Amino acid sequence: MLEALPRPEQAGRAELAEYARLLRDYPERGGKMLRGMLLVYAGLAHGAQLEQLLPVAAALELFQNWALIHDDIEDASEERRGRPALHRLYGMPLALNAGDALHARMWAMLIEARASYLVLDEFVRVVDLTAQGQHLEMSWMQTHRFDLTEQDYLLMCAQKAAYYTAVAPLRLGALSAGVEPPATYIEAGLNLGIGFQIVDDVLNLEGDPVKYGKEIAGDLWEGKRTLILLRWLSQASEPERIRAETLLRTPREAKHPEEVAWLHRRLRESGAVAYAQAEAERRLAAGLEALRPVLAELPDQEAAQTMLRLLESLVRREA
Would you say residue 213 has pLDDT above 80? Predict the structure, then answer.
């Protein structure tokens, strides 16, 4: 992935050296690389060679990085992977431009690797579904929607996070091997990806700040509609619901820290966090149960078992 990006020391101008630093910033911060690893092991399990898989996996990780730059701007986030978000370091215009450039580099990697039409089409689907899910979440926040159900959250989560986190890596691994992906990859992957996002929502409230790498309670500062929040709102007393909705309608810069701390505490005390964690575990179990018989038929069983362990780590994690 890093080899596909410009190097500051090779730039002909100081401004373009800065441009290279922006493009490399999030990728050089590391991250879990779970999606890329899942793709590689899915491809190996289906009989592909590592050399076929690495460029596609790296392109998927580039997708993750440019999408995070845009997501952090749209959410007015403060941190990413333990450091200030890119737009906090360089300003929104330069960060947005870097995200656009990484998006182009993603397609360039796939073209240079002579990726098949089916692989390219799957990347189109990933970008489109992620954008649809992001639109749902942002529009709810922008229009101050609180009449949402858990099913609304699950639909948004499936599109924004679950597809590219679990479904796409599994399908892209198979497609890179020249194999039609099993239909099970969609339903099972959605369960696993939704579980991953719910755990992220839990960690946002209860995670270790060092391991988590993002702002604790950032979802409350940003006003996100999580499963935890919707569960609590459905059971809260009218005075508490009004107080919470008033806080969540308030722009981030005008929110009072004591009110955010109050809502943070009430969510943790209410049982809503435990409810969400149990839902994540249920989806993990359902996804793995559906996948095991399919993976048992694949040619490379060592890779298939590694893939299962990676999928388990989507939900049972601390960061």
Answer: no
